[in-house]
Structure formats: C-alpha cells, structure tokens
Amino acid sequence: MTHMATAPRTFAAKIGGVSIEARGPLSEAVLSVLGAAEGDDEQAVECLSGLVRQAVSVEDPVRDDDIQLALFLMYAISYGSLDQVGAQWEWDPRLIVARTAIERVCESALRAQISMLDTPRARAADVAEALFDMTRPTPGPNLARFIARQADVAQAREYLALHSIYTLREADAHSWTIPRLTGRTKAAMLEIQADEYGGGDPQRVHQVMYGRTLRGAGLDDAYGRYVDAAPEITLAAFNVMTMFGMNRRLRGAAVGHLAAFEMTSSIPCRFVAEGLRRVGFGDEVAEYYDDHVEADAVHEQIAARDLAGALAEDEPELLPDILFGAAACLAVEGWAADDIFEKRKSGDSALRESDVARAIRGGASA
Predict the structure, then answer these.
(1) Is the Cβ–Cβ distance between 226 and 235 less than 8 Å?
(2) DSSP symbol at 140
(3) pLDDT given for residue 216 in this prediction
(4) Homologous superfamily (CATH) for 124-362
(5) In a 3-state reduction of DSSP, which class is residue 170?
(6) What's the predicted TM-score (pTM) here?
C-alpha cells in the first residue's frame, strides 16, 4: 500500500495561474502578500514581518516545510517564475529584510550540519583534485540506480515531477553569479551556462527540453504546478543554490555548488535515461537526460579547474566558501535524493499529500 506524507491544509492561493497551498503561517503570509488586492497589502506585509521573527528560531530551518516554501515564494518574485506575480515586491525593503533573515538562519544551519574536508592550497590543480575527491561516485544503491532498474511508471513520473522544481529553471540559480565574477572565472562560467541555454538554439535550452520531457510523460510543464507535491528538502535544494547565486558575498559558494553539481550529473543522468526507456517512455522523454550524459562530462572538467580552481587562485580568500558550496550541494542534493529513495524502498510515495500528487500518480496532468 502506498502512503503519502501528510501536510497541513491551511490556506491556498492561485499565484501566476498555479494553485499553491500554504504549509504554515509564514508561507501563508507570503501567499497573502503576493495575492493581496491593492490597499490590502500593508496588513499582509506587517503580518509577514512579525512571523519572520518567530520563524528564525526553528530548530532546523533547512527541513522546515513552512520556511522553505516561504523562501521559495520570495525567490519566485525575482525569478518571475509565477508569471511575474508580485514583481512590485521584489525590492520592497520589508520583504528584503524578511528574506535576508530567513537566508541567514538557513545558511547558519547548513554550515553547522555540513562536514568540511581539509582545505587544499589555493591552486587550480589542488582545488580540482579536492573537488574530484569530494564528488567521486560511490557504489551501492541510490536513487538514480533505482530509477534505472526498479522504478515503475508511476515512480518515474514522481521523479520527473519533483525534478521540475529545479529543471524548469535550470541554470538560472547559478547565473545570478555571472556579474559577480571577472576574467577567466566569468569566461568559464559562461562556457558552461551557454550550453545550459542551448548555445543559441531555443529548442536546446535545457528548460525547454525538460518541458518536452514532462509533456511526453503526460505531465504538466507549467512552472510551479508540482510545488504542492514537493517535500521541503526538494524546495531546499533549489533554495540553497538560489541563495548562493543571489548574494554577492556567497559567490564562492555559488561557484563551488555549480562545480559539484556538474561533477555529479553525468552518470546519474545515464541511469535515469535507461530507466525512463525501461518503463516504456520514448526518446522524447529521455532526450533531456541523454544530452546531459555527454555535456556534463565536459562541464565537470571546466567547472573543477577553469571555474572553481581559477577563482581560488584569483581570490584565495574565497576558497573556504568554494568548498562549502560544493559540500552544501552534495549534502542537500543527497538529502533530497535520499528522501525520495527511502520512501520508495518503504513503499511510500515520495510526494506530499495533495491533489496534484494524486494526479501525478494517477497519470493525469494536473
């Protein structure tokens, strides 16, 4: 029997054409701000400001449903993820204060939870070697191998839906960092990101390719459609890379995160492509993952040496943050994957209880 994690049903709002359900008072307050009619927004913002003061005292903000959805929604204002809803709030000082307070507690929690290796010398070759050591594949069962060998169609659809939280905005989180870099590190970042955005071909933009994957699997490619089904750690994985990219002081962490992300993508993508074909999906569904098998094998070399290694040489004071960003990527992405994998092993759904979760498992577009 399949069970889904339960979630409190409190307040839902239609934001940018997508229905999103609050997960507690903080995310309800953000949804209220985004959906407030003109003249009613001041009260909503004041309510949000008061709730943030309470939220920053939670024990583990990284795994807190309410905090992660609230942060996701505040970032969506700047991304324009939800049809530009709330664009007028992007630079409102009260929302900036609220977002910054939440970011600081999440960053502190990450730094406290993540183990760091010894710091290498600030030379490109040494930094690359350290990153390759950190990202070396490990044997044994994991989520990608599960998709390749055991997942059924419903489980593959779950995986694709949850993956959409990042992939329909693929590369954007790291691209916030581009203006914060110079010289050879900027050139290396752009070399990687140019491929992510299709190298000038709009049909090869990875976000567009993933939209085809979702449609081919009978899923919806509207951004945010599956937010209600995403557990907090899935949202946290996207929020962490966004936090690094949007804060100039964390540009080293953003570079380290991108390096680790690229260096751990090629092999899992090959497994997922195999699994999608095994359960009966065609090339139009697997194409996105096929593309990453080859591209990320090249990107990992650029990311380790020309991006992270060069940044450490040019700005050695950023080396600790480069390593922190890489470690944070491996930890949070690992927690998110393990969450799905462990639920699948125990026969539970990886999705949060919601109408959209039932639609995903039932085979209907939501």
Answers:
(1) no
(2) S
(3) 97
(4) Heme oxygenase-like (1.20.910.10)
(5) coil
(6) 0.93
